[in-house]
Amino acid sequence: MNYLNLDLEKTTKTANELNVLLADYHLYYQKLRNFHWNVVGKHFFDLHEKFEEMYDDAKLKVDEIAERILTLRFQPVSNFSQYLELSNLKESPSETKATEMVQVLLKDHGAILKQLRLIIETADEANDEGTIDMVGSYIGELEKISWMLDAWSMNSAATNLEE
CB neighbours of 149 closer than 8 A, spacing ≥ 6? Predict the structure, then answer.
């Protein structure tokens, strides 16, 4: 790893946390597919489309995270049993109601954001600006989609913002 000029011991911690993030994003991706396939009711059209947009983004991030782990000269986790073991997220049933789907995703976003911030800390200790840059952009994107989902789920009577 000499070409990166990073300390192997410090980078090991970052790679381990990136593998947890990889597991998180795999479960998140599958949950979004589940919700995309199984959303029904009056919110079908808006959520079906949004969930597809979100899982397309998650699929790209899975590849980017694995490639970052490889760039650091470590092995990305690649077995679903390991993802289930490592992930901060839990699976969701297919029978989840539309409004509950959004709440589940917002909870998952909180867990993923916590993991992303942990990676920022470990990467900073290792002077790993490449990982910090990648993860920093993920934080901003996830915060934005969280805001949008939260705004979608708000009770308009409570906010007095909707006519």
Answer: 102, 105, 106, 109
